[in-house]
Amino acid sequence: MIRAFERFISVPEETGVVMVIEKEFGLICAKDWASMASGIVNIVKCTFGTGALYDENILKQKIEIYKDVGISPMIGGTLTEVAIINAGSFFRADLQGYLKYAKSLGFTHLEFSDGTIYIPDDKRGDIITMCIDEGFTVVSEVGKKDPKKDALISRQERIRLMNKDLENGAVMVIIEARESGKGIGVMGKSGEVNFTELDVILDAVGLEKTMIEAPEKAQQQAIYMKYGPKANIGNVQPRDVLSVGALRSGLRGDTISALRKDDWKKYHDSVHAPDDYKEVS
Question: Is the pTM of this model over 0.70?
Answer without folding.
Answer: yes
